[in-house]
Specification:
Length: 508
């Protein structure tokens, strides 16, 4: 490896925003909230009231009231005859009201923090705040909160945590629903743990109020399709037929996409023909987008264009995503004239350019190493107020790496940190790819460790990049270790839905 490129990149990444704090360190905001709780739990000061006595031998003592403290005379302040209860001093009532209002304000603030962590997909922080909230007597978690957390844990590749949270919910006496069970089942499906997902399905069948519906089966169908276990898809369709659950268009689109990605074009055509003849699952714009994406990703532009015309003749109108698919397909084939034509057509029909539109254009220039046009597109994207996302920065990092401009990889990573761009598996793959291209294997390993510390599960693309880099340097022992780790990941590790297509990463 070249020493110059290695040292420069290593210095750069050592100060980047990717340096992570250990997971066992708590969020400082969580510590502040915990301190606040401790203060609120301290006992209030006791207020003593001294009763005055009157006798002929003693001088009558008068209470000296502070300004604004003397109670106004009202019907409620006149002593009643008989054994009436003592009235609580107004000063004490005010303290209680203040404590109650402070508790409400605290609850609202922490609830907002919980919602913010969920929105940012920070599952560990979200669980910490949620546990803090549950300790308060005034907070009663609702079904919707558990639903959001289960979905978050599922998307974050934490199915075991999701199951633990689900069990805690049951222990607290909250009744399960079909939707909550489906969210738990989806968490296992996202991690490619199909057997566990099927066990959740069997539990649902035995609970009268939690019966699986078309959405439950659709999620399972998708998991089986993604795992190429099409024999299980057939059994699921049989179960649906026995339960009189009719597959909807979404279910059919999932199977259609699965057959297409697996290269089973005959089965795909059969499903599509059935949709055209059906009255309950007719093809829609998602069907159109699925077929166009299939041929576009395979680089079969002519087939893509042919199917586009067929769907238009069937009466299906394109949407923004449809045009973005066309732009992406043309960009990968470097057909910039057609890519520009589609963008102009979008403007003509008043279809807005979205982040995906710009990302597809940036990606096209990124793969070509055309930094000038890539940066121009990114600047235009920001000038129009369009929010960049993780894919934007993945494309920028790969573009600079493809062009050999490694110092700009650092500035791009730092900018992503300032903009609080989520650092998922795809993001780390792009940085690891840049390190490999710079032949800085030491920094590549450091990023790989930080990736796992950040709870971002490596995928097949991660291992492919690193194995190619080690092979190039003849480091067979490192290759062997990674191959073993990759096999373990394939068996136990979660499947990453956010990873980019392998073709976007060229061999280093």
């Amino acid at each position: 490896m070249s020493s110059s490129s290695s040292s420069s990149l290593s210095l750069s990444f050592s100060s980047s925003s990717l340096i992570l704090s250990p997971l066992h360190q708590h969020n400082p905001n969580v510590k502040k909230l915990a301190t606040f709780i401790t203060i609120k739990r301290t006992k209030p000061k006791v207020v003593f009231r001294c009763a005055s006595t009157t006798s002929s031998s003693s001088v009558e003592k008068k209470r000296h009231w502070k300004v604004g403290e003397y109670p106004a005379i009202s019907e409620s302040s006149i002593p009643r005859s008989g054994n009436s209860k003592k009235k609580t001093p107004i000063k004490n009532i005010k303290k209680k009201l203040d404590r109650k209002n402070n508790a409400k304000a605290w609850a609202n603030t922490v609830t907002e923090a919980l919602s913010d962590h969920i929105d940012k997909k920070q599952w560990l922080d979200a669980l910490q705040v949620f546990e803090m909230l549950k300790e308060q007597h005034f907070y009663q978690p609702k079904e919707g909160t558990y639903m959001k957390l289960l979905v978050l844990l599922g998307k974050s590749g934490q199915p075991q945590r999701a199951h633990q949270l689900f069990d805690e919910m049951l222990e607290e006496g909250l009744e399960p629903t079909s939707e909550l069970y489906t969210a738990l089942l989806a968490a296992y499906c996202r991690s490619n743990l199909i057997d566990e997902a099927f066990s959740i399905l069997e539990k649902m069948k035995n609970l009268p109020l939690c019966q699986p519906d078309v959405y439950t089966y659709s999620i399972l169908v998708k998991a089986c399709v993604d795992a190429s276990r099409f024999e299980l898809v057939d059994s699921l369709y049989e179960q649906m037929d026995e339960r009189l659950i009719i597959p909807n268009t979404v279910t059919q689109n999932i199977v259609l996409s699965g057959y297409g990605k697996a290269g089973k074009l005959d089965q795909m055509e059969k499903v599509l023909s059935g949709m055209l003849e059906s009255t309950t699952s007719k093809p829609d714009v998602w069907t159109m987008n699925t077929i166009l994406s299939l041929f576009g990703n395979k680089g079969q532009v002519e087939m893509m264009e042919r199917w586009y015309e067929k769907f238009r003749n069937f009466g299906i109108e394109p949407e923004t995503r449809t045009f973005n698919i066309l732009i992406g397909a043309y960009g990968k084939k470097r057909m910039y004239d057609k890519m520009s034509s589609v963008m102009e057509y979008m403007r003509k029909l008043s279809f807005p350019w979205t982040s995906s539109t710009y990302n597809n254009v940036i990606e096209a220039f990124s793969e070509a190493g055309d930094v000038k046009h890539m940066e121009y597109t990114f600047d235009q994207m920001r000038a129009e107020g369009m929010k960049a996302d993780t894919k934007t920065f993945c494309c920028l990092i790969r573009g600079y790496a493809n062009a050999g401009i490694f110092h700009k990889v650092l500035s791009t990573v730092q900018l992503a940190g300032r903009l609080e761009i989520p650092e998922n598996t795809s993001f780390y793959n792009a940085v690891i790819f840049a390190c490999a291209r710079a032949e800085d294997l030491m920094e590549m390993e450091r990023v790989f460790v930080r990736m796992k510390d950040k709870q971002c599960q490596p995928d097949s693309i991660t291992y492919c990049i690193m194995v190619d880099a080690y092979k190039k340097e003849g480091m067979t022992d490192k290759v062997y270790d990674l191959e073993q780790e990759k096999q373990m990941m394939a068996v136990n590790g979660p499947k990453n839905d956010d990873c980019l297509e392998r073709e976007t990463y060229v061999h280093v």
